Amino acid sequence: MDKNLSPFTPDWNQLLDKLEADEQSPNSLSADEQVLLAELRAIRDESADALKTYSTFNTNKKWEELKVQIEVTSAVRSRGKLRKLWFSIAAAAAAVLLVIGGSLIYHSDQPQPKNLVNIFRNDIAPGKNTATLTLDNGKKIILSAANEGKLASEAGIMISKTADGQVVYTVKDDKMAAGTHIHTLSTAMGETYRLRLPDQSEVWLNASSSIKFPASFASAKLREVELTGEAYFEIAKDKTHPFIVKTNLQEVQVLGTHFNINSYADHQKTLTTLLEGSVQVSNHAEQGKIIKPGEQSIVQDGQPITVAPADIKNVMAWKNGYFRFRNESIKEVMAKIIRWYNIDVVYTGEVSDEKFNGNISRQKNISEVLTMLSYSNDVKFKVEGRRVTVIQ
Length: 392
Known about the structure:
By secondary structure, the protein is α+β, with helices and mostly antiparallel strands. Helices cover about 30% and strands about 30% of the residues. It has helices at about 10-25, 30-55, 60-75, 80-100, 100-105, 310-315, 330-340, 365-375; strands at about 120, 130, 130-135, 140, 150-155, 155-160, 165-170, 180-185, 190-195, 200-205, 210-215, 225-235, 245, 250-255, 260-265, 270-275, 280-285, 290, 295-300, 305-310, 320-330, 345-350, 355-360, 380-385, 385-390. The strands form 3 sheets. It has a 19-stranded mixed beta sheet that branches. α1 (about 10-25) crosses α2 and α3 runs antiparallel to α4.
């Protein structure tokens, strides 16, 4: 592997080096760290190959060859066919660029079709680390505006915010701690947050999601929470107090494990993906189906629960800070972008049947993300305020 072709910044390179060093040490990597390490290695290898290919791709020469073909055949070819030919060549280079990253995209001298270009009236920053915590008494705390340290105390529980922005629940008085005080942590579109529950379980909440939970599990036989949207859980082991996650379609019971639940309403199904341990998934009709690490259950209203091998990289991409597209339509791609950039999307023209593949950082402005998408497929974008038009 030629590290000079690494696509990462120095910080990412340091992280990759650290994970590879820890992998060889007696301190084994966590399941999450193993997923991240595999992801970074895959990006490094794919990008190195892409850079080598790109270095030998002469875009000016290919464009001149294409213009000759267009002139010779322009009398008989339709506009639609010409555009398709353009994109067949552009896609060869763009597939390389999509893997490499935004900087090369912007510096490319590749010509663009005159009648189909991106229009960015303004740019939109990526989502941020914030959420709203609603206490049992109705008080709302905007976490991005709250200072580090103690946020509130209630029923023997202290709620605080750490230096890295995590909300932590700590039991201060077991006798006072009661499960009747219900709190809700919610994220709007363009927000994400991390929470440590009073039993030390940890939850990463994706955009446009919420979790409702008791301020203390001390007096309860079960540790029950309710989820809408998407979250990744790392549950503290407690065999005497099973942990249960309820969504509108299902119930997941665990003892101690790592898993992701995607229950966005627009999916019309709930996906539970297991990384470590064992969970039991039940819907309104079935009493429970056990899934194993690397598997994913699918629950849809009125249908039996199905279990299939999971694409762990794809499922965990949001938590690890990037978009991952695998053979996805433009509407599937935009569904992820809508939630993270808090935008409205409209479509013009015939719906494209192009499929998208690639990894893009969620920390980029929307113009960079859309530019990369537009290079590899037969779509362009117009951004006006928080409205994005997909031009096909």
